[in-house]
Description:
The chain is 19% helix and 34% strand. It is of the alpha+beta class and 497 residues long. A 9-stranded mixed sheet has the order 7-6-5-8-9-17-16-15-12. Strands 19, 22, 23, 26, 27 and 28 form a 6-stranded mixed sheet that branches. β5, α1 (83-94) and β6 (99-105) form a beta-alpha-beta unit. The chain starts with a strand and ends with a helix.
Amino acid sequence: SQNVQLFKSGILIDEAPIQIPSGGGARDIKFELQNPEIGSFTYRVYVPPLEGEIHKEDNEYEVSVLVIDPKNRLLYVEGPPRWESKYLSRALKANSQILSLGFIRGPQGKFMTFGVKGSMTADMREDQLAFFKIVVLGNLTAEELGAERVKNLIKFVDTGGSLILLGGANAWGPDGFIKTDLRKIMPVKSYSTQIIEGEYDVVLTEDAKSHSVFAATDPHLWNVVPPILSVFPNAVLSLGAQGLVSANTPSGNHTIIAAHRYGDGKVVAILTDSLWKWVLNEKALEYKPYQRFWDQLLSWAMPEKAEIESQIFDIWADREQLFLGEKLKVRARKTNRGEEIGKGLAVTCEITATDKRKIPFKMNDEYVVTPSGESFPGYAVEYEAEKAGLHYATAVMVVDGKRVESDPISFFVKPFTPESVPRAANFEVLKHLAINSGGKHYLNIEELNNALSAQNFSSIEQEKVRYESLWERWLVIGFLIGLLSASWILRKLRNMP
């Protein structure tokens, strides 16, 4: 008896005893998985080798599980705590339409969090951003963000996510957002990196009065909004961007909130670090302008259902495990709002092997049958496994100039071992089995054919007698009952006894 072990992302989470017969054989074992967290997890089932076991290559099996959540999720990543992060965190927690996860940098660079963290980190990897609809960036420098996070965020926006850039001396300073590639997607193409401070009244612009964020706002609300204390002035809007809120300063009106669409997503820039002042006012406590502003902004930033469902890309394989050298068929189909897209698109299947290399394979046009049994025009490719271990496959295509990817699927390639490779026939054993069972042993197919041809079969005649009683036939019984019934009715009609 020994324990079969289950690991989740490298951590032992369960064990179950199993008894393997001394003569060998198969035993089934089942683990029930609970996934209260969202993210991508790798499960590994491992059987510790028995004493004296030589071949251990097939003692483990891995599978990748992608846990998703259909709810609207927001990621907030902030620098050290400040007034803005304090009140924004409260506003996010008070919004019942979204589930927020916040990372706020604490002492010694460690992050403090609020919300359901699960396996998420502040790394903003591409696979992590896929779980969020909105990302809010706080007072972070270009160095703190890093090129990889910026690249992932640009792709996140381009494919339909919303990005909100908060104000802060680090974020909008000379070493902030403007020093990263985020400048390519911001709704302001230039601004002063030197903050000005004072008490400045805020007003809605003409564009804001017809914008979704403010269209339903009570007009009296902006009469009680407290002044802000800081502005990054001289903002020049990017082509197609709208200035929504401006601040009245001695040097003129300066945009403090701007927004535009980029790709399939949206980007908002907040050029002040003192919106939190909207909370601290006697009238503001009654009208709650800060909470109402954030609720309306997040509602606008949340991708519409039609936008989310506009790109549907399915991928699947004909099996989840195979041996080295065997071939796997990977199929995919692309739909747009439920309607099939025509053929002729270049579709690639990117397969990530155990060495983390992504290898692209061209997928061919082919009618595919989905796991549910439906047939659609789609794409397919055969892949021959060359390395053992867990593999991932993603279908990729370019539609209207945009890269569209499926969620990844996984399959496990098992190594051949002496325990799994069919062994050559043992002719001595077969010969003794034939002799002991009264049969004959032939060394090749020719000897077997000659022996079968030499067989003489004589016919045997056998006489059989079969007795059947008419009373056992329902047809006869029914006929007799019918005659008796007819006779009885006829006698009654003639008044005969």
